[in-house]
Q: What sequence folds into this?
């Protein structure tokens, strides 16, 4: 374990370590500068904080419980706790930071919100926050994802959002981000781009982390109450990395806590079909940030693959690259198949249907518990619920003849 | 020095520079070379040549569509520089600018990229997703290899940003009269002359306007506002999208369009007077 120094894990301007930055067309710089200013002001604005906390508590349902598993991944001396972001309004952790950014948008005088979405969870969160706060919402979504996440598309539309299919490129999350950035380049006067993960140009990674760190702060307090000490490991899935950075944030300076991010290994880390950007990618500049990405030797961005649309992204938030390079966090891969197994097992053993994204973290928790040779307390970020995945999982497992 | 020489000549002739943009390797290596020849034969004063990128966030649908062809043909960075070298061999004096994305430069190794650019006889590099605030990653290496770095001046930039752009953009400064991305869907508007004179007061390199310029009228407006040159990209690339399967028609259409626009650029000052 590296020595945790005080400044090592803080942002210096637009950068965390050597990662991050603002690699966007010049035309977008005023929009990012305005947002950065509004965000920095909001941190010290008591009124903003109290408005946000009111929404988080009374509307979204914070705090979420920390539930100890009755049998999933449990063995002698190993206890597993689930941080229940699946119970948050909207069905995933996304709502935390969406409410915050939507409030910021109002403060900046914007009337319209644009967002990208992969699994549809961020789109749903954006739609609900926009409905609540009276903002017009346009959601860009890969055409491929629209097919595999039909219920979420309908949810967004019910709440008054416009969903625009993105056909170009690979028709998934990265292309939806490109399209949102293109929209924003012309519309930022009255439009806020509500980016859904801790990636993209500064200030998004820093800001999304700030508004998601409530997950880890609560979890820390809850585990101290329930167990009387810090956990041995905190596990979260990583696509863009917002739920992971959210639960990691308050533990980064706690040397004794292992931080483990789980990437989608798809059909295997050695196959070409995965989304394991940290494990298998290389350094590059994409979607406004110097980070790690899946790319060809020439620098063309490659398509990723994951059974879960929310992890199907060929880049990752810059802070995760920094956490990996400094050795503070460890990143591992879980395949589609392992995630599907965990999805079913948690349903069966705990009566909780997890999102396929979170199922990746659950699958790794099981591996870690199995290999534990001393007492261990593990927190898993159950970042979302699995209702949106039911049709897909049903198709997959009935075709395997399991039911 | 090719830009300085060209702009000085244009000034003396009371003409705007006409700078066409196309993608390298589109629709093929051979046709791409012929397209570039056609552009020069029909009055181009400088070239702006792009490398296709998988995620062109600064580009509209026309250039996005075109980008798929070089990518599908595996036209890679080496092929691009080979083609550039060939163009340079035929046309020793025309200024050649590259328009690319940050990751394409980064992936080669920044130093290696600019070395290749210098060897191919390139004069400038504009990175579409690198604002002047992040330019430091590239500019020092670029000037080491005698490559000018071009930055973009957007219409609503603060004085501070305009000064930064003017001070850092070498060869020329790419000015926008409107927001958004490349494409003819939204036409260029006449650039605010206040904005242009601010850039000039900060001692900017010559001002070349792009984004949404597709007609002769746009060129006259640009001249009136006081720029030194105009870029047409999407309007040209649209012709390639339309006719790439019929090379002869494609080259004829390109010749005709380039000729019209070059003439407009060369006569605009006189006509406006």
A:
């Amino acid at each position: 374990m590296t020595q945790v120094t005080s400044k090592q894990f803080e942002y210096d301007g637009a950068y965390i370590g050597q990662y991050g930055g603002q690699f966007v067309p010049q035309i977008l710089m005023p929009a990012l500068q305005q947002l950065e200013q509004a965000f920095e002001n909001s941190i010290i604005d008591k009124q903003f904080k109290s408005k946000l906390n009111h929404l988080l508590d009374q509307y979204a349902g914070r705090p979420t419980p920390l539930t100890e598993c009755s049998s999933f991944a449990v063995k002698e001396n190993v206890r597993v706790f689930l941080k229940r972001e699946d119970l948050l309004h909207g069905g995933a952790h996304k709502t935390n930071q969406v409410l915050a950014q939507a409030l910021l948008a109002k403060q900046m005088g914007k009337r319209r919100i644009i967002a990208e979405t992969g699994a549809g969870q961020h789109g749903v969160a954006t739609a609900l926050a926009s409905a609540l706060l009276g903002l017009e919402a346009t959601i860009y979504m890969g055409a491929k994802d629209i097919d595999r996440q039909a219920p979420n598309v309908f949810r967004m539309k019910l709440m008054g959002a416009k969903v625009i299919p993105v056909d170009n490129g690979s028709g998934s999350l990265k292309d939806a981000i490109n399209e949102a950035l293109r929209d924003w380049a012309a519309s930022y006067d009255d439009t806020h781009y509500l980016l859904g993960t801790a990636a993209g140009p500064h200030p998004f990674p820093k800001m999304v982390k700030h508004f998601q760190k409530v997950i880890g702060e609560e979890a820390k307090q809850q585990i101290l109450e329930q167990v009387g000490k810090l956990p041995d490991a905190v596990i979260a899935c990583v696509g863009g990395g917002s739920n992971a950075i959210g639960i990691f944030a308050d533990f980064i300076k706690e040397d004794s806590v292992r931080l483990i991010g789980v990437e989608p290994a798809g059909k295997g880390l050695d196959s070409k079909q995965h989304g394991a950007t940290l494990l298998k990618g290389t350094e590059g500049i994409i979607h406004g940030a110097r980070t790690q990405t899946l790319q060809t030797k020439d620098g063309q961005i490659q398509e990723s693959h994951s059974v879960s649309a929310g992890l199907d992204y060929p880049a990752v938030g810059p802070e995760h690259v920094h956490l990996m390079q400094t050795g503070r966090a460890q990143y591992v891969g879980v395949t589609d198949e392992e995630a599907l197994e965990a999805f079913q097992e948690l349903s069966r053993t705990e009566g909780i249907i997890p999102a396929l994204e979170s199922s990746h973290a659950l699958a790794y928790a099981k591996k870690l518990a199995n290999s534990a040779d001393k007492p261990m307390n593990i927190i898993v970020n159950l970042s979302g619920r699995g209702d949106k995945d039911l049709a897909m999982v049903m198709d997959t497992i009935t075709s395997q003849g399991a039911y | 020095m090719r830009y300085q020489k060209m702009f000085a000549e244009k000034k003396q002739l009371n003409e705007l520079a006409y700078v066409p943009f196309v993608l390298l390797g589109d629709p093929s290596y051979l046709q791409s070379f012929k397209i570039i020849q056609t552009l020069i034969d029909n009055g181009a004063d400088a070239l702006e040549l792009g490398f296709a990128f998988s995620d062109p966030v600064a580009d509209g649908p026309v250039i996005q569509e075109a980008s798929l062809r070089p990518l599908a043909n595996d036209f890679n960075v080496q092929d691009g520089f080979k083609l550039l070298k060939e163009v340079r061999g035929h046309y020793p004096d025309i200024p050649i600018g590259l328009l690319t994305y940050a990751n394409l430069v980064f992936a080669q190794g920044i130093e290696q990229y600019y070395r290749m650019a210098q060897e191919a006889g390139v004069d400038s590099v504009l990175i579409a997703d690198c604002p002047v605030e992040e330019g430091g990653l590239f500019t020092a290496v670029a000037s080491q290899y005698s490559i000018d770095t071009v930055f973009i001046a957007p219409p609503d930039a603060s004085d501070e940003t305009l000064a930064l752009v003017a001070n850092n953009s070498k060869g020329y400064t790419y000015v926008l009269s409107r927001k958004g991305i490349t494409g003819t869907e939204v036409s260029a508007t006449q650039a605010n002359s206040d904005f242009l004179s601010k850039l000039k007061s900060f001692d900017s390199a010559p001002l070349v306007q792009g984004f949404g310029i597709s007609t002769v009228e746009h060129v006259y407006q640009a001249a009136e506002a006081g720029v030194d040159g105009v870029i047409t990209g999407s309007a040209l690339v649209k012709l390639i999208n339309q006719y790439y399967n019929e090379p002869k028609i494609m080259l004829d259409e390109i010749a005709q369009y380039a000729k019209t626009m070059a003439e407009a650029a060369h006569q605009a000052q006189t006509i406006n007077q």
